[in-house]
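Curious: explain these tokens?
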Amino acid sequence: AAPLLERASEHYAEVAEALKVVVELFPLPPGGELKDPERRERAAEALKDARSAEEKGLQALVKVVEALPE
């Protein structure tokens, strides 16, 4: 199960990195240029990357659970 957990951890690190991009583009309190199409496109791509990595991380966690002894 340890290699599977490591794989899941790597995917969730990718999620964190992708979300960091969004935070840098649109910091809180409200900042960044919300109407800037280039920023919005970059943020959308980062969110898609985060979603993809999250799905892979979740799949890895499901495999961890399946590998656990009963």
About this structure: Residues 1 and 67 are 6 Å apart (CA to CA).
